# Entry
Amino acid sequence: MTVLAELRNLTQCFGSRIVLENLTLQIQEGEILALLGPNGSGKTTLLKVLAFLLKPKSGEIKFQDETVTDKNSERMRLQSALVFQRTVLFSTSVFNNVSYGLKMRKMPKAVIEEEVRKALKLVKLEGFEKRSAKKLSGGEQQRVALARALVLKTRLLLLDEPTANLDPKNASIIEEVIATVNRELKTTIVMATHNMFQAKAIPHRVALINQGRITEIGTSADIFGRLSRNLASFAAVDNTFAGTARITDAGTTIVDVGNGVQIEAALQKQGETSIFISPQDIILSKNPLTSSARNVFRGRIIQISDLGSLVKLTVDVGKPFVVQITKRSFGEMELNLGSEVFIVFKASSVQAI
Amino acid sequence: MNQILDGIVRAFQLILSGDPTVYGAVYRSLLFSGVATILAVLWATPIAMLLGLKDFRGKSIIKGFFTTLIGLPTVALGLFLWLILSKAGPLGFLGLLYTPGAIILGEALLVTPLIVSIATNAVEAVDPEMINLAKTLGASESQASIAVLKEAFNGIIFSNVAGFNRAIAELGVALMVGGNLAGFTDVLTTNISTLTARADFSTAIALAIILLAIVFGINLIIVIAKNPHVLLTLGRMPQ
# Structure
């Protein structure tokens, strides 16, 4: 496979803080490469270096066999586009947002109109041209930002946590677009994520990044087959737990993850294991629920994050669990930091990793 | 109260009669303050971009310096400029004292700190990733700066209008370095001051009303230009 971009012995610092340390990475043409790591591991900085927005303190960047320097970085930037984790939009219409890069490239007006229309269709925002970009919902805004990058048909597309803070519907649209663009346009994509299941499902290769270093790189099958315990230790991968499993008489598995938390799973596992429960599979209740769910834990809310239409809550039941509920439910339940709640999930929601 | 009413009546008389003294003062006020504001915007905007976008040692001191200078008394600045532009001063050779050029220069210097401070805040309020966004979409360094300026447009316009308002309403600089020479360097504010000293209150009030009307009118035009639907809202108001 052809190497599209290469980083050699790259170090990046902000002040005295080393953010990327002696990092070497090759990006193959046509692949989807996931950078998987916790918050603060250097994923965003690495993407900005690949976007030629940041000049590294030391090391070399090569793109299509040409070394990137101060003199050619502006020209090189035309070959890549970065979609930021936090959506940044111009205070104008959707059309003007999506067409910005094409105007910078001095494309003819007719071509711009056609390409913008196609890009909006790809992200399922047909007819949105005249709407004010900043008045769209969070998910729609992120799709506009993606369309704005896709319309440029760059060799390299860089995505920083493309579906973080999105509801499942919008996340699904974006994941579908990523796969389509790679398959049909052969766009090379590097995406940063801390969503382990996204990293497993979409990319061809996964690079684990921690504290500014790439600790492992390989195909999804290699990484997730061999390194489940390392993955589970990533603090920012929500709801992953390492523990000791034992099979019950009923044929399920009880996994003791520590601090008195024992999780029942519809699996057959024995010994040391790592498990994951999707935040979307957990129900939150103010009172204990009588249901078929095998896992009911009482705890307190220790963190609340506003994700637009959703609210992300961290509940400490002895171990921290991340739960996602709609903002409407959050308001109706009158939840606050310190509120006592119950989390409930089925044994079948527990996945082994 | 009678004096104010007399002043309003006198204002309409002066406007409708086409009084050359009044129209001359209005013209010079708009011209001197307009050119001064344009000059100030030309050098203040790059300063605001630098302060708003870049981080460097001493930045907060420089920002504090401009903020402090907003409160500079106009007569103090006028005196300072008089000393510099007088024949004995270091710039006396320019022959600017008691000319329109001196007023324009003085007012431009007066409003610069105000424009810098407001414009800097406007640029700082723009998303800090805007520059990177523009660049990753293919913009050059200067094109990316223009993108930031566009995002800060409302704040920049506000800074320009605030600067113009301060310039046209000030007295100290115009009096000290302009000399209030009839038909040459007299403006609305210097005329108001002179008329009041002469106890011609109705004409002074008339000129003050005209000055207020000009300031109000210009600001209203800016508001409508930014938000044309304001006219529709006014049109729909109950009779």
About this structure: The mean pLDDT of chain B is 90. The interface with chain A takes residues 127, 129-130, 132-141, 143, 147, 150-151 of chain B (CB under 8 Å). DSSP finds twelve helices and no strands in chain B.
